[in-house]
Amino acid sequence: MIIAIDGPAASGKGTIARRLAAHYGLPHLDTGLIYRATAAAVIAAGKLPSDVEAATDAARHLDLARFDEGLLRSAAMGEAASVVAAIPEVRAALVEFQRKFATQAGGAVLDGRDIGTAICPDADVKLFITAQTETRADRRARELQSRGENGDHEVVLADIRKRDERDSARSSAPLKKADDAATLDTTQLGIEAAIAAAIQIVEEKLQGG
């Protein structure tokens, strides 16, 4: 069973994906991490994330084991990842990596921006997780503050809006809801309620609903 989960930053898709993977006993891939790792490799090489040649080379030789997840989840790396993700050559280099993970024996849960539309268009279940922009900014600000980073609400809100625009406007596999994806708005939901709603969607899909 392949479960594809898409949505904008701080919508809750990563947490939902991890919990669904645990619930169904499936491996999970946060595809955002591979873009963050690509960005980290570019920066470590002394290049800018917008450097097409450097970013493409980093994507083609990606080794997630080389990177500290704490660094990859920083706000700065999230911004850099959004830049490299807009490069078509980078996305092309990472498609095989993601599809190989998705098609392993037994299936998998993947979350990102284009899983249901580009990476796994034939996924058994597709969810599009969303939430109001202000709510997402509040969540991300609290997350950053918990890690000792700058969690100023207005700064985070501006970053969220910029990333949304870049992700939705990019020419290669833009962020958008797959036609056959179920939408889950988490604006008014706590995490447990969101998890329960996601499981219900999966179960209904598996039962032919």
Descriptive tags:
209 residues, alpha/beta, five-stranded parallel β-sheet, 5 strands, 56% helix
Mean pLDDT over the residues: 92
Low-confidence stretches: none
Question: Can you list the strand order of the major beta sheet?
Answer: 2-3-1-4-5
Instruction: Describe the sheet with the most strands.
Output: 5 strands, parallel
CATH architecture title? 3-Layer(aba) Sandwich
What's the oligomerization state? single chain
What is the CA-based Rg, rounded? 16 Å
Q: Would you tell me the structural class of the helices and strands?
A: alpha/beta
Helix percent reads 55-70%
- Strand tally is 5
CA-to-CA gap between the ends? 16 Å
Beta-strand residue fraction: 5-15%
Q: Please report the first level of CATH classification, the CATH class.
A: Alpha Beta
Distinct helical segment count: 10
Number of structurally distinct domains: 1
Q: Tell the overall outline.
A: globular
Q: What is the H/E order?
A: EHEHHHHHEHEHHEH
Query: What is the CATH T-level topology?
Result: Rossmann fold
* CATH homologous superfamily title: P-loop containing nucleotide triphosphate hydrolases
